Amino acid sequence: MPNHRQFLSTSPKPLHPARSPCTLAAGPTTRKTLATPGVDSVLDGGILQPHIHDIGIVLRHGRRTSHFRVYFKRHTYLPANGNFHNIKGDVLVMRVASQNPSSVVNLRSGDHRLADFIASKVAVKIADFQSPQRVRLPGELKLSRSW
């Protein structure tokens, strides 16, 4: 008889928390069939702001193209981020699956450096979005990194 159970796995994602100035590995649970991110359990400030914003990232590094997704919140009472002084709240970077763009996968060995690079570049856009003028965010942001 075949096994039809869906196994839960923890996948460490780089979380840039607002309360400490270091990058943490957060492990939201995902399902193998469609790995939807459990972002609401990782990001802080659920009482203040239950809505989570996201930006799609297309990163060209060398000859490769990788897709990521950045999650964050927008509220005036969120604490200042310890890594990026111009934004408030946590920033979470996840890799998008190549087979299914609506799914996320575990980060690979070199992805933590790419995630830090992405978060530093996207922090400017997030700061503009969190400002009182509320500049609109693009649905997808294209970045390139040369070695």
TrEMBL record:
The lineage of its organism: Eukaryota, Fungi, Dikarya, Basidiomycota, Agaricomycotina. It comes from Mycena alexandri. Residues 1-20 are annotated as: Disordered. Residues 1-12 have a biased composition (Polar residues). It comes from the Eukaryota. This is Uncharacterized protein.
